[in-house]
Amino acid sequence: MMIDNAEGLVFRPPSEARSFILRVTIGCSHNTCTFCTMYKASKFRIRPLDEIDGIIERGAAAYPFIRRVFLADGDALVLKTEDLLHILHKCYSTFPSLNRIGAYATPADLIRKTPEELRQLKEAGLDILYMGVESGDDEVLRRVKKGTTAALTTEAGKKALAAGMKLSVMIILGLGGQELTREHALHTAEVVSAINPTMLSALTLLIPSDAPLYQDVVLGKFTPLTARGFLEELRMILQHTDMTKPCIFRSNHVSNLVPVGGNLPDDKDAMIAVLDKYIPYEDNTRPCLNDNGNF
Ligand code: SF4
Predict the structure, then answer these.
(1) HSE-CB of 147 using CA atoms within 13 angstroms
(2) Ligand 1: which residue has its CA nearest to atom 5?
């Protein structure tokens, strides 16, 4: 039985590996970030509710044991609140074992929702949001066309948490290149500390040859970090974080050079000590330019 035959590639956070991926949109409504190629081939559209209902019904019939649903694609929270509430109710009333629903959300999505709307979504079972902070530095955000600012991102993250949701945020090591590594590190530490999310993941920048950022590298406008540069940047971010509530930190994605993880603030020194073991090694690797190593 075909459950969903929509076009395009499907992405989800690593922690949603066992979830039923419910694509309430196709693509990303923003889709201009210069480092991101995830949805470049997809023309953005919001799917009709009857189409989504059909997917939920077929999904629940095929996988009645599903305990988690993840709303995709790139920014499911772009949907109207009443439509999201309909989808949440439909999921919980159709999947018999469901106990959690998560979604990607951009800062702009969260800013558009009122605190009351976010509370309604939380009460209807939207438990966790994943938000790409990427950088806390306004100049880096402008250069990569993220479409937000540090202040808006901070406000967005705080709104999600105030509504009672869990919030997992992602940052990208190396996003400022060698030109802005210090600004990127210090301001990103500032923003994530101000948000104090439930979880924080640091990914390492990879630049596929079809990403717009790749052209900036070719034109000499962006100089990628070297291996040591990534580790030093992560060290600087960790050193300057100032979490007042527990935050699970992970930098163990396949893109990362050295796996680091722990709880902030308690494990900060231990994680920095792990990085300090590797930083002194000779920096004899080529700059990390792309994911196939042929640049
Ligand atoms: S908002 Fe997220 S999914 Fe959309 S283009 Fe930017 S990084 Fe990619």
Answers:
(1) 14
(2) 31
Give distance in angstroms: CA of 212 to centre of ligand 1. Answer: 13
Q: What tokens were used for 130?
A: 């994943």
Q: Which among 229, 239, 238 has a CA at the least distance from the CA of 178? A: 229
Complete edge-to-edge strand list for the sheet that includes strand 247-251: 20-23, 68-72, 100-104, 126-134, 166-173, 199-204, 247-251, 260-264
How far is 174 from 227, CA to CA, in rounded Å?
A: 10
The answer, as to whether pTM is greater than 0.85, is: yes
**Residue whose tokens read 């902030």:** 264
Polymer length in residues for the chain: 295
For residues 113-136, average pLDDT: 98
Ligand 1 centroid distance, CA of 270 (Å): 32
Q: Are the C-beta atoms of residues 125 and 88 closer than 8 Å to each other?
A: yes
Average pLDDT over residues 63-68: 97
**Distance separating alpha carbons of residues 19 and 127, to the nearest angstrom:** 13
First-to-last CA distance in the chain?
Answer: 43
- Kindly give the distance from the C-alpha atom of residue 148 to the centroid of ligand 1, in angstroms, as a whole number: 11
